[in-house]
Amino acid sequence: MPHRVVVVGGGIAGLYFTYRLLSAAREVEVVLVDPKDYHEFVVGVPMAVAGLVEFKDLLFPFRQLTKAKFVKARVAAIDERCARPAEGSGPICGDYLVLAPGALHIGSAQYWSVEGSAAIAQAAAGAKAVRFIVNELTPVAGFQELAYAIKSRWPEKEVSIHVVYIGEDYRSFMEVGKRWAQEIGLEMSEEPPPWRPDELYIKVPAARPHPLAAGLEVDPTTFETQYERVYLIGDSSLLKLGLPPIGWGALWQAATLAKAIAKELESGVFEVEAESWLAEGDKEKFLQWMVYRMTSGTPVIHLKGLYDLWRGQVWRFLSA
């Protein structure tokens, strides 16, 4: 009998974990649970805003999955290694339970969804200037890349980011990003200009752990919770570990966990193969690594390369 792995959440963390696990492990069945009909490749939103692809190209129908079983359901609670849907069918249980529900977003600027970002792009097209106002300790990631994309598409438009209040970990990313901002004419400051009716103001929302993650503790090395073989990865996990909920971090967690579980299924030993700083749970070295990934991955053209890889390798493998 194949081992059963239940993955709650079909965002980039859940889908990439599924891809990496099925690529590395034999005799394993993955059940992917998500309330939506589509995987939304939200990492590629700036690319769509910049006009490199259509927004609809960021939607991947779960019904096309062939290597994983898709169950459309909103999970309301977990009970050991079982996910309990809010309504309808009974619990969905496995030998492993991997939670990747994303984060709870508090605010109205929904640029983390395909529909919401398309609406923002439409509003930005008609605005004389676009201002991103950041006034949260832990803001939803992506506003900086979105500002770059708007400026790239409409170079004549005034685009700015105003950091009224932000966590120190985010501030380190912003300092790195200022170099790109200056090169393309993107303004960054702490005080926003006076409000003008012909300008678009985007108040960057806050990110909080998803309700499913409430009460869960996360090991910084294995991402296992206090419950055996129940793991938390993605934005909520990063937030609980005191790290910025950035896409590169979610992909790192997904790949690390998939490799460890695949090894346990093969040899019976759960072993995280990572560099020493990661195995030691060194937050500062992780942040340094994250800054490096951000500096190499932020430009829109780099996102296009990532999108082509996602569509041509990750999704093609899972839907072949």
Question: In words, what does this structure look like?
Answer:
Helix 1 runs parallel beside helix 7, helix 1 (12-24) packs across helix 10 (300-319) and helix 5 runs parallel beside helix 9. Helices cover 39% and strands 23% of the residues. The model is unreliable at 275-280 and 292-298 (pLDDT under 50). The chain has two domains: 3-106 and 207-319, 3-Layer(bba) Sandwich (FAD/NAD(P)-binding domain); 114-206, FAD/NAD(P)-binding domain (3-Layer(bba) Sandwich). It is of the alpha/beta class and 320 residues long. The two termini are 23 Å apart.
In brief:
The protein is an alpha/beta fold and 320 residues long.
The CATH topology of the largest domain turns out to be FAD/NAD(P)-binding domain
How many beta-strand segments?
A: 16
Overall, the morphology is globular
- Give, in spatial order, the strands making up the sheet with the most strands: 5-2-1-9-16
What gyration radius follows from the Cα positions, in whole Å? Answer: 20 Å
Q: What is the CATH homologous superfamily assignment of the largest domain?
A: FAD/NAD(P)-binding domain
Keywords:
FAD/NAD(P)-binding domain, four-stranded parallel sheet, 320 residues, 16 strands, 2 domains, alpha/beta, globular, five-stranded parallel sheet
